[in-house]
Design goal:
single chain; about 130 residues; five-stranded mixed beta sheet; elongated
Length: about 130
């Protein structure tokens, strides 16, 4: 098996994932998974595609991720890994699709409008 390359996005985070056969090592921006994502929740999000398909120790993963915050980055990596798992084995699609892991979350930050304090918040109006 050659290296499978996929891209995942979430908010403004972009993750490029390179999956190859190996022992289950996950490297993110040249750092270990546990070092990059310190909380268990974020580590679970990254490993979710492997957990559902029972392939935790079958593949080595190299990730380049930039933009956004740590949660957006973790979810971008999850989408890219889910896409890679579908390319490796088409049967994985039936497992990952019902869990919502193949859907790109379209929600983005709404822009601030001119004449307002924030995107939706208006300036306070006082009648004196």
């Amino acid at each position: 098996m050659e290296v499978v390359h996929k891209i995942g996005r979430r908010k403004t985070a972009v993750a490029r994932v390179y999956v190859s056969e190996g022992k289950g090592n996950i490297t993110i921006n040249k750092r270990d998974l546990n070092e990059y994502f310190t909380t268990g929740t974020l580590q679970y999000k990254v490993k979710q595609a492997f957990t559902l398909t029972d392939t935790e120790d079958a593949y080595d993963v190299k990730v380049n991720v930039y933009g956004g915050g740590i949660t957006g980055q973790a979810e971008a990596i999850r989408l890219a890994l889910s896409r890679a798992m579908c390319e490796i084995d088409a049967e994985n699609r039936g497992i990952l699709k019902p869990e919502g892991l193949l859907t790109r979350d379209p929600r983005m930050v709404e822009r601030k409008k001119f004449g307002q304090k924030k995107a939706r918040k208006k300036f306070q109006f006082s009648k004196r």
